[in-house]
Structures are given as structure tokens and as C-alpha cells.
TrEMBL record:
It is an enzyme of class 1 (oxidoreductase). SUPFAM superfamilies: 6-phosphogluconate dehydrogenase C-terminal domain-like, NAD(P)-binding Rossmann-fold domains, UDP-glucose/GDP-mannose dehydrogenase C-terminal domain. Keywords: NAD, Oxidoreductase. Pathway: Nucleotide-sugar biosynthesis; UDP-alpha-D-glucuronate biosynthesis; UDP-alpha-D-glucuronate from UDP-alpha-D-glucose: step 1/1. It comes from the Bacteria. GO terms for molecular function: NAD binding; UDP-glucose 6-dehydrogenase activity. NAD(+) binds at residues 30, 35, 86, 121, 153, 264, 329. This is UDP-glucose 6-dehydrogenase. Gene3D superfamilies: Cytochrome c1, transmembrane anchor, C-terminal, NAD(P)-binding Rossmann-like Domain. It catalyses: UDP-alpha-D-glucose + 2 NAD(+) + H2O = UDP-alpha-D-glucuronate + 2 NADH + 3 H(+). Its EC number is 1.1.1.22. The active site is at residue 261.
Length: 437
């Protein structure tokens, strides 16, 4: 099939590449000329494991091409995916200007039947709005379908190729059949394509993300309570997670959820509720608890250093909002770094993939290190913000030899308490007992 993808970010590029992998001819359109030039030169503009292999293979096979021209994209594709940003607006709602702006252009330009697929995360009623905007100018038939994306960054290719489910919101038989044909190769393992109305599809995405954000937040509250009463959240997590009704996943406490999705999507659903006079009380709490959780290590650090962080230097391992990505949007590490800088401290940071993005934001306000151990030189303490695999079995002797104060503040509970006890370092984590030498 001939497919066009408008917006070539994390979702658009993965969608375009994976659809080319199953034999479709895909044109990826992006407004960012530099990005398009990079992709034309064979360069993947984001860090996403395994994407490079598929990207390269499909470019060489002539199935994946790139353009800055929406017109070209619209001429090419019978199915047009919109994978455009829907960032948080000032009032917490999803900013639909990118989606509706492109919809307007589509209405003015299409000359034959197209299926316009909304892959961006958008509030209930957006498919209807897109339909209206296109219909203002369109001189041919078209259908608008809602097809929310559930991929996770860091596992995006795997998630797209082997989705647990594909949700298609459509009220058109013709469009539904085309979507089923397109996605057939991805559901061979028996996972379903769930067809529903557009509004339910739009809400499914927000409900899934908000539920997961609430699950994490619930565990963060349990962890905070563990600290007050001397229980161990790791043990509680294992005890709870073995109940299949609860499940083991997304129960890991830490310094809060971040990223380009959970924070904005929880806020957008909360705001959508307000718009129809519904008060999402759970979401209100989730937002507030998570905001505070991002700096949960700060009181521990301040107490350890007697409230005097002035001129202390902290090594920070992990800047990305989670491992296996270079994405720093709403990363808890950055909230903590801001607080440390405000308190007069200095920061030496290391992250395997996200340092370039952080450099653009912080410039020379913090130092960057080439290796995780270099970050420890002449620093007072180590803070861990992201659970990259390489931090999981560190050389504790090197850590002890380098740090001025022999102490680790771990926002992701990377180490077993009993193991750290044997290593002889002071250790503060989330929802577990402190080790104070
Ligand atoms: N990142 C994720 O893991 C993820 C997962 C599921 C859903 N989503 C949703 O998918 C949507 C896209 O997210 P993303 O992370 O891929 O965003 P992104 O910011 O990584 O990419 C968006 C791309 O759109 C391009 N763009 C902006 N305006 C354009 C225009 N007028 N024409 C063509 N291109 C244009 C930008 O240059 C950018 O390359 C959002 O609604 C997001 O909530 C994201
Ligand atoms: O037990 C857990 C699991 C996750 N997190 C944090 O939650 C955030 C989000 O993690 P994850 O869901 O793995 O990353 P995303 O790539 O943001 O993916 C989410 O957001 C995407 C965009 O909407 C959806 O498509 C995915 O299904 C959804 O998992 C990160 O900060 C994690 O550190 C925890 O604190 N504890």
C-alpha cells in the first residue's frame, strides 16, 4: 500500500519505518528541513534501539523516502498518518494546532479519496474536528480514523512490530477495511485489532496512560509511607505484584514518571474532564504527587549535608526520563538538577545517550563527563536518576575511592540493600531503609 506519515518524530519515524518493513511504500514528511536532510543521508535523527537496521534496509529497498513537502506526501499516500506533536497548552489541555493546521492544508489539497489517520494522542472529539476542518475545503471523499499509538520509547520498534493490540476508531467500513489490511501482518500472533468508534479510541489512549501513571504514583505513595513506618517497598512490590489481578509491571517506585507522554496526557485528560464539568479527582492527586516525587531525593540530600549544599558538587548518573532513550522531556533528573543548582551546588552529569540534548538546555551551567566514573572525580556524592543497565553493577571500590563523601542517593532503587551494606557505602533510596555508615 502507499502510505504517507506526516511528522517524523519518535512515533512517525517508527510508524513509517515499520510499515515499510512489511512491504508498503512509505513517504515520511517533516517540516524540519535539517531532520529530513539527515534522514535522506541515511541518519536516524533519534536514538531508538534497532530502528537503524530497519531504517537502513527499507531506504536501500526504496520503500522508505523522506520529504519536506506535504503536497508530495498527500499525492503519494492512500493512507495519511498524522504523527504530529500535541504538546501541553498553558491550561493543561492538548494543543491541537499542529493537527488542525495540517488538517486544514489537507482539505485544500486532496483530490482523491484518502484515509486520514490520527496517530497523535488527541482528546475525545478531535477526529470530529479534523473531519470538519478537512470538509471545509475538500473536493473529494475522505475518512478520518483514530488510531492511537501505544509504543514505548526504548522499545518502540518491538512494540510497533508486535503490538499487544491495535485500536482503530472508525465509523467508515471502507476505511476500516483498509486499516485491517494494513495492520494484518502485525497481528499474526493473535493479538487483536480492536475496532470501535472514534471517541472511544481517543479516550482509550488517555485512559491507558493515565491508569499506568496512577499505578506508578500509587506505588510511589506506598514507598513514601514505607519510609515513615520502616517497611521495604521492594518486598511489598513483590508481594503485591504476584497477584495476577495487580500484575508485576509498572509497580517500580522512584523519582516519578516523566517523558513526553504521561505528564502531558494525565493533565490533558484532567482538563478535558473540567471542560465537561467532571472533576477527575484521582488525576488531580496523581499530578500533584508526581510533581513532588520528582524531587523526593532532595530532602535526603539536604539532611545528609546539614542543609548546606553551597559549593558541594554532585555526580548525576542518568538524565533521560528513562533508560534506552535520549528523550529528556519532563525528565525527573532535570527537576532535581534545577533544585541542586538553586541551592548553590554544582553538578557533573553522565548519561549514555541524552547528554547532547541536556547540553542544549543547560549549556555550561553543569559539567558533562565522558564516562560514568569520570563524573565521580572531585564530587561529594553520587545521585542516580535513571536506571540505565550500565549503572546496575558498578565498581563500588571506584565509587568509594572517587567520592569525597562515601554516599549514594538512588532515585531508582538499583541496588539490593543487603549488597550495598556489604560494599560499605552510605545509601539512600526510595521506600527502603537508609544505610548510614
Ligand atoms: N513519543 C512517544 O513515545 C509517543 C507514543 C505514543 C503516542 N505519542 C503521541 O504521538 C504524537 C507525536 O509524538 P512524538 O513523540 O513522535 O513527537 P515528536 O516531537 O518526536 O515529533 C513530531 C514531529 O512532527 C514534526 N512536525 C511538526 N509540525 C509539522 C508539520 N506541520 N508538518 C510536518 N511535520 C511537522 C516535527 O518537526 C517533529 O519531527 C504526540 O501526540 C504524542 O503524544 C508519542
Ligand atoms: O514501574 C514503573 C514504570 C515506569 N516508570 C516511569 O514512567 C515513565 C514512563 O515510562 P514508560 O511507560 O516506559 O515510557 P514511555 O515511552 O513514556 O511510554 C508511555 O507513554 C507512551 C506515549 O503515550 C505510550 O505509548 C506507552 O504505552 C506508555 O508506556 C518513565 O519516567 C519511567 O521511569 C516508573 O517510575 N515506574
Amino acid at each position: 500500500m502507499r502510505i504517507s506519515v506526516i511528522g517524523t518524530g519518535y512515533v512517525g519515524l517508527v510508524t513509517g519505518t515499520c510499515l515499510a518493513e512489511t512491504g508498503n511504500e512509505v513517504v515520511c514528511v517533516d517540516i524540519n528541513e535539517q531532520k529530513v536532510q539527515k534522514m535522506r543521508n541515511g541518519e536516524v535523527p533519534i536514538y531508538e534501539p534497532h530502528l537503524d537496521v530497519l531504517f537502513d534496509r527499507n531506504i536501500k529497498a526504496g520503500r522508505l523516502t523522506f520529504s519536506t513537502s506535504l503536497e508530495e506526501g498527500l499525492e503519494h499516500g492512500e493512507i495519511i498518518f498524522l504523527a504530529l506533536p500535541t504538546p501541553e497548552d498553558e491550561d493543561g489541555s492538548a494543543d491541537l494546532s499542529y493537527v488542525l493546521g495540517v488538517a486544514d492544508d489537507i482539505g485544500k489539497r486532496i483530490t482523491e479519496y484518502k484515509v486520514i489517520v490520527d496517530k497523535s494522542t488527541v482528546p475525545v472529539g478531535t477526529a470530529e474536528k479534523v473531519q470538519e476542518v478537512i470538509a471545509k475545503n475538500a473536493k473529494c471523499d475522505f475518512d478520518v480514523v483514530s488510531n492511537p499509538e501505544f509504543l514505548r520509547e526504548g522499545f518502540a520498534v518491538d512494540d510497533f512490530l508486535k503490538p499487544e493490540r491495535i485500536v482503530v476508531g472508525s465509523s467508515s467500513q471502507r476505511a476500516t477495511e483498509l486499516m485491517e489490511k494494513l495492520y494484518k501482518p502485525f497481528v499474526r500472533s493473535g493479538n487483536p485489532i480492536i475496532i470501535m468508534d472514534e471517541k472511544s479510541a481517543e479516550l482509550t489512549k488517555y485512559a491507558a496512560n493515565s491508569f499506568l501513571a496512577a499505578k506508578i504514583t500509587f506505588m510511589n505513595e506506598i514507598a513514601n509511607y514505607c519510609e515513615k513506618v520502616g517497611a521495604d517497598v521492594d518486598k511489598v512490590r513483590r508481594g503485591m505484584g504476584t497477584d495476577s489481578r495487580i500484575g508485576k509491571r509498572f509497580l517500580f517506585p522512584g523519582i516519578g514518571y516523566g517523558g513526553s507522554c504521561f505528564p502531558k496526557d494525565v493533565k490533558a485528560l484532567h482538563k478535558s474532564g473540567k471542560d465537561v464539568d467532571y472533576d477527575f479527582q484521582i488525576l488531580d492527586s496523581v499530578i500533584k504527587v508526581n510533581q513532588k516525587q520528582k524531587t523526593a531525593l532532595l530532602p535526603k540530600i539536604k539532611t545528609y549535608f546539614d542543609n548546606d549544599l553551597d559549593d558541594k558538587t554532585f555526580a548525576v548518573w542518568g538524565l533521560a526520563f528513562k533508560p534506552e532513550t535520549d528523550d529528556i522531556r519532563e525528565a525527573p533528573a532535570l527537576y532535581l538538577i534545577d533544585e541542586l543548582l538553586n541551592a548553590g551546588a554544582k553538578v557533573k552529569a553522565f548519561d549514555p545517550e541524552a547528554m547532547d540534548n541536556v547540553k542544549r538546555k543547560y549549556e555550561d551551567r553543569i559539567q558533562f563527563s565522558k564516562t560514568m566514573y569520570e563524573a565521580l572525580d572531585n564530587t561529594d556524592a553520587l545521585i542516580i536518576c535513571t536506571e540505565w543497565s550500565i549503572f546496575r553493577t558498578p565498581d563500588f571500590k571506584k565509587i568509594k575511592d572517587s567520592l569525597k563523601e562515601n554516599v549514594i542517593f538512588d532515585g531508582r532503587n538499583l541496588y539490593d540493600i543487603s549488597d550495598v551494606e556489604k560494599e560499605g557505602v552510605s545509601y539512600f533510596s526510595i521506600g527502603r531503609k537508609d544505610i548510614i555508615l
